[in-house]
């Protein structure tokens, strides 16, 4: 492991990235964000990685936010650059060619909630707590939270969370669509791995295109999004996975896909 504040491990085709700064509840300081940035580039280039999981060290926190002690004395210009840096890193997570699952154990606040939202899917332990408490600190979210939260839960609920700084538990997160699945304490990573294994058994080409279609489609009008879907659908038929998937169906066997 070449990182100080991250653990990056592999279980078969799954890369597990653990934010490991337990003394500050895994808060993202500049050093940790820089390491995340590096790790993401390495994972994007690694064609043996089928699925990525982000989690936090220990049961208490996923990530308790950006590091408040580092931000305390920032100038406006420094804060803008810090925000842009985090936005770039989280955009790179969102744009990873592989599907990304957040296994959320404990607090996912501020930058931690933003990190979870940059992932494709969120699995939450019952002790998970989500929120964007920035308005209580005199700031707005800065790593994409003011934009990804309304896209995930709708503008009304997002604005309520942003204005009140309320923290919601896993069950409420599930109810409003922030969380895909709630699991017992201590089980988030195992459940994420089980889902990763299922995803890894599907066509990597198809899964990658599904991710691209959903991501792109959220940023453009419906007509352009639908046109993009047609392009990707067509491209599937130029890749071997469509032949394998449909032959397997007709031959009543399980498909075997090449890895990425
Ligand atoms: C720095 C943090 C931290 C953070 C926790 N710690 N969160 N340090 N930045 N975001 C540190 C504490 O200072 C403490 O250090 C140690 O972790 C343990 O935390 P405690 O507060 O003692 O634990 P507890 O009483 O159980 O409370 C847990 C908590 C609380 C409710 C999660 O720590 C908390 O409210 N943290 C801040 C959450 C927050 O506001 N996050 C959003 C940040 S703004 P010591 O040394 O005292 O033991 C943000 C903006 C993102 O994320 C965009 C930027 C551009």
Description:
This protein has twelve helices and ten strands. With 260 residues, it is of the alpha/beta class. Strands 1-2-3-5-7-10 form a six-stranded mixed β-sheet, with helices on both faces. It is globular and about 60 Å long. The structure holds hexanoyl-coenzyme A. Hexanoyl-coenzyme A is lined by residues 24-25, 27, 64-69, 82-83, 86, 107, 109-111, 133-134, 137, 141-143. Residues 24-25, 27, 64-69, 82-83, 86, 107, 109-111, 133-134, 137, 141-143 line the site of hexanoyl-coenzyme A (HXC).
The number of helical runs is: 12
- Major β-sheet strand ordering: 1-2-3-5-7-10
From the helix content, strand content and strand pairing, which structural class follows? Answer: alpha/beta
Bound molecules: hexanoyl-coenzyme A
Distance between the termini: 24 Å
Low-confidence stretches: none
Portion of residues within helices: 40-55%
Succession of helices and strands: EEHEEHHEEHEEHHHEHEHHHH
CA radius of gyration: 19 Å
Total strands: the figure is 10
Query: Averaging pLDDT over every residue, what do you get?
Result: 97
Strand content: 15-25%
The rough form would be described as globular
Largest sheet features: 6 strands, mixed
